[in-house]
Specification:
The protein is mostly helical. Helices cover 48% and strands 2% of the residues. A two-stranded antiparallel sheet has the order 1-2.
Length: 184
């Protein structure tokens, strides 16, 4: 948690009821996951990223308290087991110009709220590209399969990345982002 605070310069965690669940998760990683050095480093970085996101979201909620009262009109949530057509359905729904589909960089670091006009100047694009590059390089090393890494962070969703990396990281196949309607 201290590392996330150093990364963001923030310290307000908001509701701290998450601490017990975090402690259980970290204990499970430490005592039952049997991770090697690279696995421990990857888990540490992911935990710091997620905790940093929590701090940034809490900060944004503090600065803009009306966010919690903003209605999300008619959200579409796609739920299904792997290999049942959820990706096809997601990609089909993403073609609707009225749909607001999250980009990978938004999913990796959701706060601050993205500027809809800043798709090429958004600083989180490079961070997302670096994360994907590292994950796919690790996947290529593990599987011996070379993977294309160009342009993943600007995709309308994380699905292409998940499809290619799910051989190395089966847990990723369960991550299904939602289609969020555009606000008028």
């Amino acid at each position: 948690m201290a590392a996330a605070q150093r990364c963001t310069g923030l310290s307000d965690w908001g509701d701290e009821s998450f601490r017990m669940a975090l402690r259980l998760l970290l204990d499970a990683y430490k005592h039952t996951a049997k991770l090697h050095l690279i696995g421990r480093l990857a888990i540490r970085q992911e935990c710091i990223r997620l905790l940093s996101n929590r701090l940034r979201i809490q900060d944004e909620l503090k600065r803009y308290p009306l966010i919690v009262h903003s209605p999300i009109k008619k959200p579409l949530v796609i739920v299904g087991l792997p290999r049942t057509g959820t990706t096809l359905l997601h990609n089909l729904l993403a073609q609707d110009p009225a749909a607001r589909v999250p980009h990978m960089w938004e999913l990796l670091q959701p706060s601050p709220s993205p500027d809809p006009e800043a798709t090429t100047t958004e600083p989180r694009l490079e961070m997302a590209e670096q994360m994907v590059r590292k994950a796919l390089a690790l996947c290529s090393c593990c599987s011996g399969v070379g993977l294309n890494i160009i342009g993943y962070s600007s995709l309308p969703s994380i699905f292409s990345f998940l499809m290619r990396s799910s051989r190395c990281f089966p847990m990723l196949a369960w991550c299904k982002p939602t289609v969020i309607p555009r606000q008028p």
